[in-house]
Design a protein that fits this description.
Layout (H helix, E strand, L loop, with lengths): L6 E9 L22 H12 L11 H12 L26 E8 L4 E7 L4 E5 L5 E8 L2 E8 L7 E4 L9 E3 L7 E6 L3 E8 L12 E6 L17 E7 L7 E4 L10
Length: 259
């Protein structure tokens, strides 16, 4: 087994439109002075926050607060979702159920989308190269296990259940905040993701998947961390898991209007 210099620190978090007019000559216009919906505000704020658009770009603390405050106030109804939709049914008698992805928007600077997970749905351990990612659990309960490379050692274990209390948006950065993570749905749940910039094979931002092994699994390796290595693991690159199936579906919530 080939294990490259891939020691990582771990962090575990248990957390839990109307239709457009059919007349081509008409365009919906917002009434003067009316407040745009949360989805539109999210889009417009993303355009400003990720205007730079390059890999490795870090939004300013003020921009992080602005974008996070919008996400913190969003729930499933703001994006046209409810827990009784077929996306959230587990119809697989055995194995890992498929996941549904709802595409809201993507350009070369950022993307917005929603992952819909049935109970026991899993998004395997993967990375976000050069990206800043905002994630908001819209409803449900899920377990999140995340890692950063050893130059940013962090470990935490917390429990949040947004079904009963609000869940703040989480943020990961290119080299901090749990850039590599996996999701396991405890109940049906929906996660809204904002990626800046998005994955791009031509630009070298590939999604890489990993196996993880306890730090003590390789006692012959040099001691790289103090103590017993609690909160650390070895990560090994792997192919996309065969049982990780994602179906695309049409987003039916409030539309994003580009200006």
């Amino acid at each position: 087994m080939k294990i490259e210099s891939s020691l990582a620190s771990g962090r575990e978090l248990a957390s839990e439109r109307g239709r457009p007019s059919t007349k081509k000559s008409r365009k919906r216009r917002r009434r003067p002075g009316s407040m745009p919906g949360l989805v539109q505000r999210l889009f417009e704020t993303c355009k400003e926050v990720f205007a730079d658009g390059r890999a490795g770009f870090l939004p300013s603390p003020e921009d992080v607060v602005r974008l996070r405050s919008i996400l913190d106030n969003m729930n499933a109804s703001d994006v046209g979702l409810s827990q009784n939709m077929p996306y959230f049914w587990n119809v697989e008698p055995q194995g890992t159920p498929p996941i549904t992805y709802l595409h809201l928007y993507e350009c070369d600077k950022f993307s917005i989308g929603i992952f819909c997970l049935p109970p026991s749905g899993v998004i395997p351990l993967h990375n976000h190269p050069g990206m800043t990612v905002f994630s908001k659990l819209l409803f449900g309960s899920m377990h999140i296990k995340s890692y950063d490379w050893v130059d940013v050692p962090k470990y935490s274990n917390d429990v949040i259940n947004p079904a009963h209390s609000p869940c703040e948006a989480s943020i990961l950065y290119p080299a901090d905040g749990g850039n590599m993570h996996c999701f396991t749905a405890r109940t049906s749940c929906a996660v809204l993701d904002v990626l800046g910039p998005p994955y791009s094979d031509p630009e070298g931002r590939h999604c890489t998947y990993y196996n993880n092994f306890p730090y003590a699994s390789f006692p012959e390796t040099a001691v790289l961390v103090p103590g017993e290595g609690e909160g650390y693991a070895w990560l090994e690159e792997r192919e996309k898991p065969d049982d990780f199936v994602v179906f695309g579906a049409k987003y039916s919530g409030p539309r994003i209007m580009e200006r």
